[in-house]
Amino acid sequence: MDSIRNTLTMKSILPSLAHALSLLTGMALCLPARSVELQLESIGMYDPAKHGRTELAIHAVKVRDGYAFCASLAGLLILDVGDPANPRVVGRHGTPEDATALAISGNRIYVGYRGGLEVLDIADVRHPFTISKVSITHPSSDVAGLAVFQDVVLVHTTSGKHGTIFEMFDFRDAANPRRVPPSIFSTRLAMSGSYAYAAGGSDWTLFGLTSPTSPIVLANWTIQSGVADVAISGRFAYVTGEALLIYDLVDPLAPRLVGTLPLSNDYGHRIAVAGSHACIWTGFWDFFEIIDADDPAAPRKVAEINGIWVRDVAMSGNFAFIGVAGENPELAIYDLSSPTRPRKVGAFADLLRPFCLSITGPPGHQARVQCSDDLNDWQDWQTVTLGDLPLEVRDSDVGPAIRRFYRAVQVAP
After folding, report:
1. Is the per-residue pLDDT at 332 higher than 70?
2. Is residue 241 classed as helix, strand or coil in its secondary structure?
3. How far apart are CA 187 and CA 152, in angstroms?
């Protein structure tokens, strides 16, 4: 070998030849077959700025059965939060781009990222695996939100070029997902039996879900000051915008307004509710207002958390789980058992940056990327179709203590 470089190119070589590149957190090896030239190049650890990202973040959080599911630059992270003071990773799944949105239904989690989404089986949270995946209309668009009802998924995508688009996919036959025309145009949904309440713009709308691929509008209410989000706890709906509005849903077709509370920090972007306590993300992304609604007719603000750059919030029992962005991204966990004195009791900030490789070769050809821990046993990792530009692939499972080898092999036509 003349030199060891970041790019290794070889033609018509025998698989027994091992030309390797040693990297900081892994090792790359290129062993293409036949006479087709493939280039496997180290990009190094993921740099969000190169992907149009301005910050690192926990973009979305869902909490269920003692586990927190987090959408992050490393893909899906699954944390055991049974002890909120000591959250720990028990499962993970890498995605081609930053995971930016989540939705859970039964034993499935839907993970959105730039250009598409995956459906994972999470019956065993320690070993999530892909059931299916789909591409959205515009590969350069980000998935900004997901909502799921009866395994029909509503996808909110956004980009500077294409604007905001809503798409819908039917995953009831997960092996054969199909695109269906969207009939709901908001992913801020709250489910109640066979009903879905949707918030967006100046309206909140009640949909019937008897036919999940064809939801029907049963009622619509306009709030001139705007509606950003809706959550349901017990028989009450909590609607947020310029104010918190609490509705009694004894008759789901005729919600009755029972309480209001002006918000002190501009606009309420997101709300999470557990029992009679609500966390509302307000202001310029950096305020949380904690609301006591023991008396729904007289809700009151009891505390405020500020100074953190918020991306999402979820609640479970007496705890709030906040996805934080910025220079120090983390999942921050607050104890609200004494709502007037919220305490940060735990955090998870070990967001490993994925290791990135790029593959270059004849457009239209397929290449199989394989990985190994010892240069002897190789496992198929990804099969990709090459284009005119170098194709980037990520490995979210590497870290400072892990050394891994990669090679690219041409797939026989």
Report:
1. yes
2. strand
3. 12
Beta strands in 96-174, from DSSP E residues, in sequence order:
99-105, 108-113, 116-121, 129-135, 142-149, 152-159, 163-170
What is the reported pTM?
0.77
Q: What is the CATH code for 47-182?
A: 2.130.10.10
The SS3 assignment for 248 reads strand
Q: Could you state, in order of their start, the residue ranges of all structural domains in the chain?
A: 20-45+353-410, 47-182, 188-307
Question: Averaged over 295-318, what is the pLDDT?
Answer: 91
From the candidate CATH numbers 3.40.50.12780, 2.130.10.10, 2.40.50.1020, 3.30.70.240, the one assigned to the domain spanning 188-307: 2.130.10.10
Tens digit of pLDDT for each residue in 228-275? 899 999 999 999 988 999 999 999 999 999 999 998 766 778 899 998
Q: Strand runs (DSSP E) across 160-286, as ranges?
A: 163-170, 178-180, 188-192, 195-200, 203-208, 216-222, 227-233, 236-241, 243-248, 256-262, 268-274, 277-282
Range name among 48-62, 162-176, 201-215 with the lowest pLDDT average: 48-62
* Per-residue CA distances from 294 to 242, 278, 300, 304 (Å): 21, 10, 9, 18
Give the per-residue pLDDT at 19.
31
